[in-house]
Design brief:
alpha+beta, FAD/NAD(P)-binding domain, Helicase, Ruva Protein, domain 3, 3 domains, ten-stranded mixed sheet
């Protein structure tokens, strides 16, 4: 960034909304600087339930517009990111003491028809006494409904949006905090603090506040005010246990308190159970699953699974803080997941704020934000992100298995599991990562199961990864199976890599 450069947009926040807006804006020809104080997807955007879904339970809250938009986005995102988004069938057991079967059928009929479903299969009724899904459940459950949604690698979806934005000219700055923000006539002057405390000034015509749980704080900084209270912080926690069902389908369990809990096949050999909804008042950067939440999720899943889920079964837990638009609602689980956009200072150095939203609708949120931006800065180009693949996803969404086979044919030394993971993480960019390798040893030393030095170098150079945490829990989920010694080896390698890049004066 040169001292004289003036950007059209300074986007603050490197979660899914910030990176989605950066991608859309850069593709339309706007100059973009994105500043993220930590790692991409380092907070809420890597703490989701890993689903691209319409939100079946939102039908009960009459959020038809949100559900329709989310349902339509399932196949859009599957098409543009077939490596990190994939179809998943869900089994909803009928619990005779809760919602009646006719109500579930009606809701799923709407679910099938509201969003223009074309590729995803329709709902069907299951006899759990005969269907394999019933093997994992208590024998009292006899009937279920099976419907379609999609799963997503949430952190990778964020990184792919950032990568595409950068490929289109955006300046993506991770570990760069905005410490001051002030208007200077028709422009914004922002103080950025990067690595080792280095400070510089950035100038922009417009600011986009996409900081999620920190949105009120940035708004107050920009306005020179003491505080604002536009968002409601809601904690959602998840636990990961050893796989509770051999069935490839996910389960959705209803409960007497009105909540629903998902049990989803996760990575290799695990089940992801979540989520909770509780108001949160602490530092968003310090959120963690509480013992009470772990107990709740285990008990909720145990009401359905034949094999009980106990807190001692947990191999990992994570939590995130959803920054929901504060609509004055009652219980946390009833707060709207819809998004709200607001512009302040229209006409001269405007600032746009993002409140709420969910990962499924991030692309539509970005398009809505672009309409506001172009109203302020002038139109540059048409909407485009619905049909252009994210990096690595340039293949038909139904061809993922064929792409895995092609990679194995090209690199015959790859273990099947590694080929599968590389395609499902990087898509066609796996070929760039593997390069001219002719044997497994060409990928460098193995530092953790299926993780070699070549991949760490790729993640450092092309995906902004700097620490073991970035690699093991966000760019990949290899941390689930890595030992303490392997995690330390990854951390040491990343530190050596950073030093080597710095010594070679290669821009990072």
């Amino acid at each position: 960034m040169s001292a004289e450069a003036t950007y059209d947009l300074l986007i603050v926040g490197g979660g899914i909304n910030g990176c989605g807006i950066a991608r859309d804006a850069a593709g339309r020809g706007f100059s973009v600087l994105l500043a993220e104080k930590g790692d991409l997807a380092g907070a809420t955007s890597s703490a989701s339930t890993k689903l691209i879904h319409g939100g079946l339970r939102y039908l009960e809250q009459y959020e038809f517009r949100l559900v329709r938009e989310a349902l339509a986005e399932r196949e859009v995102l599957w098409r543009i990111a077939p490596h990190v988004v994939s179809p998943l069938r869900f089994v909803l057991p009928h619990n005779a003491g809760l919602r009646p079967a006719w109500l579930l059928r009606l809701g799923l009929f709407l679910y099938d028809h509201l969003g223009g479903r074309r590729l995803l299969p329709a709902t069907r009724t299951l006899d759990l006494r005969r269907d394999p899904a019933g093997l994992a459940l208590k024998p009292g459950f006899r009937r279920a409904f099976e419907y379609s949604d999609c799963r997503v690698d949430d952190a990778r979806l964020v990184v792919l949006n950032a990568r595409d934005a950068a490929d289109r000219g955006a300046d993506i700055r991770t570990r760069t905090e905005v410490t001051a923000l002030r208007r200077d006539g028709a422009l914004w002057q922002a103080t950025l603090r990067g690595g080792e405390g280095r400070e510089e000034t950035a100038t922009a015509r417009m600011v986009v506040n996409a900081t999620g749980p920190w949105a009120d704080r940035l708004r107050a900084m920009a306005a020179g005010a003491a505080s604002f209270h536009d968002i409601r912080l809601v904690q959602g926690s998840h636990v990961v246990v050893r796989r509770k069902s051999a069935d490839p389908r996910a389960f959705i369990f209803q409960h007497a308190d009105g909540r629903i809990v998902f049990a989803i096949p996760y990575e290799s050999g695990f089940t992801l159970i979540g989520t909770t909804d509780r108001d949160y008042a602490g530092d968003p950067g310090s959120v963690a699953a509480t013992a009470a939440e772990v107990d709740y999720l285990c008990a909720a899943a145990s009401e359905y699974f034949a094999e009980p889920v106990r807190p001692g079964d947990m191999v990992w837990s994570y939590a995130g803080v959803r920054a929901l638009h504060d609509d004055g609602g009652g219980r946390a689980q009833e707060a709207t997941r819809d998004y709200s956009l607001m512009i302040e200072g229209s006409g001269a150095a405007p600032i746009a704020h993002v409140f709420g939203g969910k990962i499924t609708t991030y692309r539509r949120l970005a398009e809505a934000m672009m309409a506001r931006i172009e109203n302020e800065l002038g139109a540059r180009g048409p909407a485009w992100t619905a049909t252009v693949a994210l990096p690595g996803g340039e293949f038909p969404c139904t061809d993922i298995d064929a792409e895995i086979r092609r990679l194995q044919e090209r690199y015959g030394f790859l273990p099947a599991g590694l080929a599968d993971r590389l395609i499902r993480s990087y898509g066609l960019r796996a070929y760039r990562l593997l390069g001219d390798a002719r044997r497994l040893s060409d990928l460098g030393e193995p530092l953790a199961p299926g993780l070699h030095a070549a991949e760490l170098s790729y993640l450092f150079d092309h995906e902004w990864a700097r620490t073991a945490q970035d690699v093991l829990w966000r760019r990949t989920k290899i941390g689930l199976g890595a030992s303490a010694a392997e995690r330390e080896a990854v951390a040491a390698f990343m530190a050596r890599l950073a030093q080597a890049r710095q010594s070679a004066a290669i821009p990072t």
